[in-house]
Fold each of these.
Amino acid sequence: MKLHIPNSAFLGNIESFTNCFDPSDDSGLRVSSNQSWISVHPLVISMTIALAEEIKLQKKLIECDAFNAKSRSYLLRMGLIDALDSNHGIQIDEHESSGRFIKARKINTSDQLNQFITDMVPLLHTSPEQAYPIKYVMSELVRNVLEHSNSRIGAIVSAQYFKKTNRISIGVADRGIGIKTAINKSYAAKTDEDAIDLALRPGITGTTTKIGGTEFNAGAGLFFTKSIAKVSRDFFLIYSGDSFFKLLKTSPHKSVELFASPRLDKANFKSIGLPIWQGTAVGIDISMDINQDFQDLLSMIRNAYQLDVKKANKEKYRKPKFV
Amino acid sequence: MKEILLYKYSSDFAENKDIARKLRLEDIEPELKVNNVVTIDFEGVTSATQSFIHALISQTIRDFGVDVLEKLTFKNCNEKIQTVIEIVVEYVQDGIFTEDDIV
């Protein structure tokens, strides 16, 4: 496999990263990088480390060019350089600001996820209200990996606060079975794009075709996560197999509307010319300027969370009793 | 009557589905089986994921029927947690009521 870490790769221009990824020869991993300046989304960090972890597990060789970019200390702090080359010899300047970031971490168990969420929030220095969607997204995305992916490397997660744009960016990547194989345990998606479409709809899970899900899965986690990005008017990207879905930013002049079908979102579904990502990778941006609180978001999700059948008879339904 | 102080198990962010399922199987359902009222007290819990609430109550509603909501109550829920519970309770009932029920 070959990978080049470009000068810039965020969710809006993630193609600058995917275009430089060639998974065709899996005898090892060859990594090069921009030699001047590198500024990338945590998704790029998580995906690259996921590849490196897989290659190490397979006891194959990683060849990595020296990181000479001026911003290499950021990549070092995020754990990327160590994952690719344990003998890099680069030192961190003690006087540099550490910034607000979550160094990439591998999560394999529910307890590790709990610990990660506990550790994560103080590092980002957010208010409790701002922390809520971040914790929520991390929990839902990583639990998806732990429960559905069969990823031998678990989930690789990382996050970064970007002061200039006042947003938190999160990347989660695995090298598991991918969405199509997972969803096709219950459905018959012909393509990776169809599988992603299904996975983003509320109430669709690979564990059952029953409305309301199983005792353990309801098929709502990705819909909630995408909705958080949408209400935040920011990007959300999910990449699996030969396809990705990229939710585009919502204009501040437009009202936010949540749709059960991702086809109705202002988004790109891309499945032509993409290298195959074995497993699933998700990136999300959450604006800290979000002017709707999480309660409003949940109310919007509740309104949007209507399955196609039987929604007309809600008055027959029992209500939960709050005391 | 059984009261479950959720914070003891979940801390302030209730997201661990394994804990939710264990509570359902070991604390909630045995009490409901003998017709006792169960109150889940969310005091100290500031947020909960939909997945957690799903693992906590969805199968109970399916197995015991929607009338179980008369005996299963939720205490000290903030607005966010209330909304998540309402979402779960609604979509579980989507799966319970058949098309014939609607007519």
Note: Chain A has a mean pLDDT of 90.
Amino acid sequence: MEQVIQQVVNGVSLGSIYALIALGYTMVYGIIKLINFAHGDIYMIGAYVGFALTTFFNFGFFPALIVSMLVTSILGIIIEKVAYKPLRNSTRIAALITAISVSMFLQYGLMYFVTPQTRTYPEVLPNVQLKLFGTNAVIDLKNIYILIVTLVLMVVLQYVIHRTKVGKAMRAVALDGDASQLMGIDINKTISYTFAIGSALAGAAGVLVGVYYNTINPLMGSVPGLKAFIAAVIGGIGIIPGAVFGGFFLGIVETGVSALGGSLYKDAVAFVILILVLLIKPNGLFGSNQKEKV
Amino acid sequence: MVYSVVTRRRRCKEMFDMKIGTKKNMLTFGLVLAIYLVVQLLLNMGILDSYIEINMVIIGINIILAVSLNLITGFTGQFSLGHAAFMSIGAYTSGILTAKLGQPFIVGVIAAALTASMAGVIIGIPTLRLKGDYLAIATLGFGEIVRIIGLNNDYIGGAIGLNDIPQYTNWTWLYFSVVLTIFIISNFIKSYHGRACIAIREDEIAAEAMGVNTAYYKTLAFVIGAFFAGIAGALHANYFYFIKPDSFGFMKSIDILVIVVFGGLGSITGSVVGAVALSILSTLLQGIPELRMVIYAVVLFLIMVYRPQGLMGDRELKLFKKVGVVNGNASSK
Amino acid sequence: MKKTLALFLALVMMASFLVGCSAGGTGGSGDSDTIKVGLNYELSGNNASYGTDLATGVEMALNEINENGGLLGKEIEIIKMDNKSDSTEAANVATRLITREDVVTILGPATSGNTKGAIPVASQHKIPLVSASATADDVTVDSNGNVREFIFKTCFSDSFQGVTIANFVHGELGLKNVAILTENTSDYSKGITENFKKTFTELGGNVVIEEAYQSKETDFKAVLTNIKAANPEALIVPGYYEEVGLIIKQARELGLDVPVLGGDGYDSPKIVELAGSEALNDVYFTNHYSPMDDAPEVVEFREKFKEKHNMEPNAFHALGYDLGYFFADAVERAGEADPAKIRDAMENTVDFKGITGTLSIDENHNPVKAVTILKLVDGQPTFLMKLEP
């Protein structure tokens, strides 16, 4: 029984990370319909910024988190302006390749400067395990932090999207870019805001992961980036609670597969789930059924 | 609309209907043979040494991969990020047959092409409903699934890879595989089947409304593309002696896609030129190890921003264009 | 017609460009003033950290030799190229080093997989290739049991470490029920696991559960939970420090306090950073040498390395360093920088003294070397015992 509890905890903590990255992914995709391959690498840069701040400047956990989020949001805006804006009217494939090239540039560019070795975070949060329900199943204090941050950010994001003017603009652009421009919305600014928020979230995830797992390397963003995309699709791309749900769902399924002895196949299972969701309910579990208009 | 067996047979025959005697065709044939003989001579004389040879093999294989992917993505508009998986299946099939079961190369190549085609069916059919980015991620997922299964299968070596595969690939095999690929695919494109594929790329619903069997053609594009990717895989395995599943992952699929886009989606000449150019670029950058990938990324980015239709757009060299046929517009969203 | 001609001309131009590109000369013969050695390492891609570390070690050794008067009176010219952690590229790089750069020997690659890519090229052109870290058995011996003439390795074969660990667990520690956690994407890890299992079960031990992980993973809680539930007396993790550090940390967090054992992949000062010193208790691993050894040459190496690179050296740095000296030693004994003679000299290496131990090359081109067992106490490697071959 303890084993089961522990595995559930493992799944939830893994899932919270996917959820956090997926939040940013889903926002950006929702608005410009681009799979931002570089999102995973923005997450990676967030982790490195946090590393630099805590190791060389002796920042505490929260200050490092906030500054890292600022840096990554600015980075996101820059990437959008330099790389994605010129291709807004090109074919989807061109935009996708550009995203891939940005991703590669970030990964290998950083690797050139910081070397491919893994780095470790100094201990900025206490290393405390809490025993659950009186058994020997443990949950790390950092897991709880991540969970809280994820849920808080989700709520904040929902509020921003549905109750503020900026959020309204984002929803409008996501629905119909041209029409929203006709209605007077500054599409460039709105897209920039979206990228800023999405990237800040990725940066936060990076710092949290760096603190939790204690290891970062320049290539750490590609797989989580992909998994986060899968999570976003599962929940319904463009839907905030969907991304969070998708993240937890994926985390628990992955852990479940590992718990049953198939740990080597867990990535394959994630992709199979993706394909199934795309085939059965392409708008995600939370999405509505959109008829295709001719 | 009735699509009779007679019509289908006529359209297939049309694909291979070439007037052998036309001046243009004789010239093309002669040119093809001439290039083969000249290079073979240079190789035998040792003027082209092993370094050039290895790079020619890499270029040749990339040409086959690019042209076959172009059929799927460029001409039929099906965004595929899992092409390396077909290559992988072909490589392992040929590798196992030649290394473990001692079969001759021709068996390996044909088996590789056929198993890869079956994989093409397996991925083509479930993804019929998917479009654009979703199709891309689904194909990427398929590629990863193939890679992971390969990593965990100990018979084929798993992560350790398959070693000591006999080297059967030589200039003859390579060159004529490339020529065959270009010949078949460009003839396919010029035929009714090709036009159906292009119609699907342009506007799938309109095509369906006009009686094009989109499901059939989308799957067919995958099957043919996979067929040639399988051949490329076999050539690869039987030249480099050693293969492992990680060589055929996501990055390899991206490499091929980049070549196709660079050369121009919808242009076979573009894929050939792109394969040559990018392979040479990659080799030239061997001397600057740490910055190589960064430069590659920047070059890619610049091409995408300043010339997203690729080098050739959708134009071909007159060598491959049938007089009077319109190739279709490749710049739709 | 014009375009046909244009195409033909383009092809011809390209061909002549490629031919002209060649620096001329066939591979193999050493230049008159310098001795060229090629470094074929993973400087980018998945295995970049190991490749870079090895290359750093090799370069340090070769530069030292140059500072001390060179090799056979000549300067060693290092030509370092990146194989992108890809076996095809490793073959391409090897070809270029041999045919364009005229190297007399190739050092590297780092992983067995990429080495296997380069082996056919080196063998075909009759240039010796030595790897300090490609541990797979079929790197030096092919599937028919024949030794690959021009290929050598200076590191333990997987079979060797696995057997040693099994004997240690059963004999010295007296534990009978173990769990194994293998890195499935590494032939090093799988090789040690296979050999461990065979020996351990022959001795009467019992493997209660086997789990696996992939390279670069960071979350092992799921598999560790399974392992904990199976109640093993020890945990065998024959992997690399990047993952092992995290595994040990997470294992201790989950309450899995049994001894952990592994191979030379643990040898890195980073492991303390990753796991934290409290977690690193009751950890044993087989290694080439003891990094804390107070033998003068080891201390000197560590000091020099720290001065140059601002960090403590790990196993890969040390192995690379020894590889550089191994090559130089072979060239000296050969008397000239001729690939065939170098090959012969390497084959006849007896009692070569490196900082990672003394080695001789056996008939399978594998090293015969003593193995040291180290125990981590609060993160510090302490010497436990040395087993002569």
Note: The two ends of chain C are 73 Å apart (CA to CA).
Amino acid sequence: MFRAILYTQWKWARPVLVLAAVVAGWIPLQALRSAPYKTMGTYHIPSLYSSITAASTGYQFLALAVAVVIAISSWQADSTRQHVYALSLPIARWRFVLMRFGAGAALLGIVAAAVGVFGGVAAAIAPLPPMLHAYPVGLALRFWLGSLIPFGAIFALLTSNPRKVKWVVAGVVTVFAVDIMLASFGVTQAPLLKGVFEGLYAPGGPLTAFLTRWMLIDV
Amino acid sequence: MSDAIVLRNVGYRPGKDFAIRDLSMSVPTGAIYGFLGPNGSGKTTTIKLILGMQTPEDGTIEVLGHQVPQAAPQALARIGYVPERLHLYASLTVDEIMRFHKAFYATWDATRAEELRRQFNLRHEQLVSRLSKGESGKLMMLLALSTQPDLLVLDEPTDGLDPVVRRDVLSALVEYVSARNATVLVSSHLVHEQERICDWVGVMDEGRLVAEMPMHTFRSGIKRLRVHGAPPVLPAAPFTLLGRSPVAGQEEEWGVRGWQPEMQSWLEAQGATLRETIDLDLEESFVELLSTARTGGSR
Amino acid sequence: MFEHIDSRSSTPIYAQIASRIRVAVAAGELTSGDGLPSVRQLATRLRVNPATVVQAYRELETEGLVEMRQGAGSYIKDVSPERRSRERASEARRLVREFLAESARRGIGPHDLKQALDAEFEGGKR
């Protein structure tokens, strides 16, 4: 069953995956080619570093974009038919949802693998200075795990009952509005808003992956 | 197990305007059960409840021995479903949807599926989104039949199909039922088609099951009488008087249920004469029954 | 032989099927030993409930016209010429009964019927 579901999501996401692979190949090539050389035929290290840092941002955007598209395409075919087909299949709803999630994660893994492979190849053919190394595997893993977070969030949103989602969003917005209002009247210091931001940006929190850098090349 | 589907006192209220209340229904195993009723009477909602797609608020539903929706996947493994509207993924081809479907059913019959595909003239590489109404109807029937189900649930399977396609779809259905003692629940407003293939009938109106019995009993049970000289007020009759309507002068037409020829003497005791007993076909019986149910006894 | 089976008719479908077979036997189209379509084939062809076909065959079996062989299909039994003429006669009576009932519904009496019949037969002879 999983293979069948994976096949359908692969078919629907194929063009995006191809595009993502092209971008995954373009980013490191661009970064390594644009960094200037020193006279001895190797890179000017500070410039190389800033190039790779820019590439890291590029990877993060790519991860976000691919995650969003794959999350939407996972459910697109079902939601246009009001999920009637999936509900008529002899499989528990949670199992089906889990398999769709797994298929999406697998597709993101393919893009991550492409990131790692192309990054590794580009770094291998570039004349790196002796103390710098390439970390294609680490990059690929960070990419994959980093993409899973926005993928999971949007996937969860699309899976839940639209009516419930509206209520949850309305509830959350109301709570925050109250928090901000109270703060503006000087009653509180907006503890909720502060707490949320701190939580999001704390090391180990959900946004950590996007706040650190995804460096292809490092010491 | 004598009944393939049993609903007991089912209640369900999807919105403010419509409710299914105290619905009890039984589809005997091996029957071809025709589900009749006007639009909006609750047939599709009942079907969704039977398939475990909605959870009833009251009562119990048992399908092929399994409680639904609690054990819905076990029941669905033995059910072939053809919904009113195309439910298959638009961006897959005929071949891809067949391979997808097959992955979920251990009982998939690949030979039969291929036979039906050829018989229905569906090509492997056709995209589901590009199929005509007839072709998508045939595809849904193909998928439903190829899993060798014990129960077929069909919601308007031939609606909007041209006569040729309709024959193909019905023939495939009848052939399957003849070969295997499968049960069929078919909801359709094409009453004459229902009349040919169904041996049981369930009539639904405004969320209630108004009649449920073997087809021949339903048809023979409801008749129209041509009566002359009946008094305006009548005592309780030995049959059910569904309605009276004047024809000309002293002549009236009565819709009756449970009429026996011997009851003619009761008529004569009221001072009336029976001019004619008219047999009704399924459509006329159905209309007669429902026009009464609405107006509460007189036309 | 099985065209125009009418579900709307007051004659049940199984009776219509049985009647067609009787007529075919009476006309000599079907004779002893001829095989009838299987229940599955006929039900599929006519798009009727298979139980209906079974009912028709069973009725004919009770009359001694048909033999249903377990696993081997259904066949016309020995049909003697006397049997055939009896079937023709009963089919004729059935046609006449229907005709008379229809005429009564339209309010056409025996006198008009006789006149019409004579006119038709004269026309046929010429």
Note: Chain A has one domain: 2-161+209-218.
Amino acid sequence: MGKDTVIKLKDVSVSYLQNRKGTHSVKDFILKASFISPFQKHRVLHNIDMEVKRGDSIGILGPNGTGKSTLLRTIAGIIKPDTGTVDVKVIISPLLTLGAGLELELSGYENMKISMALTGNYSKSTRAEMIEKVSDFAELTKEQLKMPVKMYSTGMLARLAFSSVMTAQPELLMIDEVLAVGDRGFQRKCKDRLHEILQNGATLLFISHSPDEVKEICKRGICINEGRKIYDGSSKKAADVYSKLF
Amino acid sequence: MRAKRRYIILFLIYKNLQLKYKHSVLGFFWSLLHPFLYLLIFLAIFSAAFPAIENYPLYVLSGLIFWIYFSNATSQLSIVFIKNAHLLKSFNISKLLYPLTELGSELVSFLLGLIPFMILMYFLGLKITINLLYIIPVILLFSIFTFSVGLILGSLNVFLRDVGILWNTINPALFYLSPIAYSFKIVPERFKFIVKYNPLYHFLELVRNVLYSGQSPDPHYVGRCLMITSVAGILAFIIYRKTRNGFISNL
């Protein structure tokens, strides 16, 4: 592993255990008599090789359900691959997925604290300051932050989740399609902050369905189709490859 | 990293407690009302039926609070991975932290509830002696057993939701199979084996050695409970290890 390499995937394959009959109950098990092996392996990612250097900004493009999120989860260590090795040398901040990591019954403030604790950005001395920064960035009012987040709109949820992670300077940031739900103003703000974070030396993995966004934010692009990496190179070329898929 | 882990654990416990009592006016007091109500019912119905049991209220209460702890904790643990699916999918922290903190918050509720109930037990005739301190290792051992049962249920429940439903159905049956409102002595000889095979019976005896009889725990039951806990613990560990990699794809 080279000096600047922060992530290295070698021949990584990932499978999901899939319930063969699509059932979740004992009754169906018995009726369909599938006691022998009720679960079937369903391969999601096939032999992925990938190397990421410090400061890379990589856009990941691909049709729905082709394993983009699974790829990020594998890198984050949330899913273990069947074969191959995953080497990650940096501290990973949580995946930014829609609604992920939010406890709907709790207030915005409480969610902020939980997310800070889980990402390791929590310390008593900086807590008040961090909370202020996060609420500023999210542009959510005190009243809104006191409400349980189940009353939030999708955009507000994304603002909250995004801000909790973006306010810190993460080493490796992984974004899974969250940018799309914010309004224009917030999207602009996030992109500016992303550039800032990147300039400070962070590494970015960015899933999107907008080739233009990928071209704008990322230098490098990876295209995935049916669990295989079909292109890895400049973000411009990747956007073309992606557009041709449809 | 250790400091961070401590925060994570504390926050998850805090989150569980918050969620539990968030939208209720009486909050924590509900958890006291539950055993208290049962106690009154048993006193009203059964105290005349079991005149042989000396100090029946204390007998019932000592068993009841431990039963409720077990029943609450296991039913919460059976859904712990399902409930935390969104966290499991976005944070790379040990999956074991979720059941551990779930038990932690149940234990906190239980211990807080124990204070008023100990006072009540004192008025019911509990003798305050040094032997009472034995309740601490008993609670610890019982918690490990409860955790093991809960972890087995929680792991399997991810794949088969019936496990959770089934457990909630079995729970009340288990209550009557355990000598909580009645004494083991009154069980007819030919049915005694059923109660004996119920692991909870041995724990209840242990609890009552301390809280009801005011003695030190009987080594016979200590041995039994240690054995039961070890078996449950090993089983839980194996099942959790076997299933944990499939959690994400089935949540």
Note: Chain B has one domain: 2-250.
